[in-house]
Write a structure and sequence with these properties.
This protein has one helix and nine strands; from the N terminus they run βββββββββα. The protein starts with a strand and ends in a 10-residue tail after the last helix. It is elongated and about 75 Å long. The protein has one domain. β4 and β5 form a beta hairpin. It has about 190 residues and is mainly β. The longest helix is centred in the C-terminal third of the chain and has 8 residues.
């Protein structure tokens, strides 16, 4: 199951009088137990639907046998985007694109038979850090007779903003089944007849 619901509010001012502006705010919710064709639960597969979801039904349940439903790892409830452009009368244009998104959902992972599952259900850890980025666009038009030449530069991530996009949430490095065996001390001096 994968359910996405969203409300989007937007303002668009088409380019006129040397400027334009577009702004959006999206409130959304992405829940379920299926990370999609590329499997965001496994941090992106290159083949659609080749994922652990189909290797065994046990992987879709938590340690209490309840279906592991909840916010998916790419759930980002709040998103704001603003794009603006101003063209000066002398032929130079300046544009800014900036965005903000809340951090993604994190879930404790464990392994059973070498495959990940969510022992505490989904979204039991705090979210990853928020994501922000600002880009800058500069352009200038040169006129040569009846022709024009525009030179431009596009600077992505102008302020070198960085944030973790993936946080390791694996609870154990080995199968959870191996911990039970390792915790039981071997008996010495006895043998089965």
């Amino acid at each position: 199951m994968r359910d996405y619901q969203a409300f989007e509010f937007s303002y668009n001012r088409r380019f006129a009088d040397n400027w334009m502006l577009r702004a959006t705010y999206t409130y959304s919710e992405l829940t379920g137990n299926y990370g999609g064709l590329a499997s965001s639960d496994e941090f992106g597969r290159t083949d659609p639907n080749v994922a652990r979801y189909f290797d065994g039904l046990v992987y879709g349940f938590d340690e209490n046998g309840a279906l592991a439903l909840g916010p998916l790892s790419t759930d980002r409830p709040h998103a704001v985007e603003v794009q603006g452009l101003y063209r000066f009368n002398f032929g130079t244009s300046v544009g800014v694109n900036t965005s903000y998104r809340t951090g993604g959902s994190n879930t404790t992972n464990a392994q059973y038979n070498g495959v990940y599952f969510y022992p505490n259900g989904r979204d039991d850890m705090e979210r990853s850090p928020d994501l922000t980025q600002t880009d800058l666009y500069l352009a200038h038009t040169f006129k040569f007779g009846g022709f024009g030449l525009e030179l431009s530069v596009n600077v992505l991530n102008l302020f070198d903003e960085d944030s973790a996009t993936w946080i390791q949430t694996l609870q154990h490095q080995e199968d959870v089944c191996d911990y039970g065996r390792a915790a039981t001390p071997p008996t010495s001096g006895t043998s089965a007849a």
